[in-house]
Amino acid sequence: MKTELYPLVFEPILKDRIWGGIKLQSLLNKEIPTPTTGESWEISTVSGDVSLVANGVYSGLSINELISKYPTAILGTKVEKQFGIVFPLLFKFLDAKEDLSIQVHPNDELAKKRHNSFGKTEMWYVVQADENARIIVGFKEKSSPEEYLGHLKDKTLTTILKEIQVQQGDMFLLETGTIHAIGSGIVIAEIQQTSDITYRVYDWDRVDASGHSRELHIDLALDAINYDTVQAQKNYKKIPNKSNPAVQCSYFTTNFIPLDGNIVFKKNKESFTVLMCTEGEFELVSHDATIVFKKGQTVLIPAIISDFELRGKATLLEIYL
């Protein structure tokens, strides 16, 4: 079957959040519906939030419909063999005007057993950070369920958690079980397994406009938490016009591309490639077709498009399996 596939962009799925702000519009050019828009889901197959194509002849079709029609051509041989016609990753931009809750995500085994879902290994790339902005990632020292619960009860949980000040370009891999929170004043590009399972353990005692606090999942989180210390931050090179390895785990690979000119790719058709543009703009040239992408856009390059070129001046994250 002949396929006429091309680099795909999807309609952002915008989410109002109690901690959200306006930077998805001011920094990343999203048409936000509220001044507390916290998330832009760029590519999603989460039930109820399935992405629709925004460009070209497939505009309006869902990503699931396209993958059903062209599974190998879009996903790639390796991805299709592992996941069938399930798209395994979820891509987001987040604007944390306020602190997010302290939370944890279950591993594959727990998530499958409890929710019939993937677990949620994720990574963060800091797109922008205000002065003194910080994140919480893991424990300062090895802890235990008893110590953790005691501090949670006394509202002193943050005293045993590790805070890290962040700046633009910082990158973190959060394995499942890592207790964490994004602090206020940070915009993040997030890459994760296709899962929306979050166990919230502390939400800073805040309430919404109606005076309601958000649900906590303290019991569910207890055996999902990794009580050891973690080293989540990733160091990586920033050589121009190259794919600089940054994060590699069993769920995805992420490279950092400082584009200043051009770079030619020859892929093996085993996996799709996703590019997230966090600065600047670039042209993607494939099969004599040229498409322009700008800061704040995310593009899915089907696996069948194995040869392509990027031209321009931009900061990109390159993700594949």
From TrEMBL:
InterPro entries to which the protein is assigned, alphabetical: Carb_Metab_Reg_Kinase/Isom (IPR051804), Man6P_isomerase_Firm_short (IPR014628), MPI_cupin_dom (IPR049071), PMI_typeI_cat (IPR046457), RmlC-like_jellyroll (IPR014710), RmlC_Cupin_sf (IPR011051)
GO BP, sorted A to Z: carbohydrate metabolic process
Organism: Flavobacterium humi
Protein name (record): Phosphohexomutase
A GO molecular function held by the record: mannose-6-phosphate isomerase activity
Active site: residue positions: 200
Mannose-6-phosphate isomerase cupin domain residues: 246-320
Free-text cofactor note: Binds 1 zinc ion per subunit.
Binding residue positions for Zn(2+): 105, 122, 180
One Pfam family from the record: PMI_typeI_cat
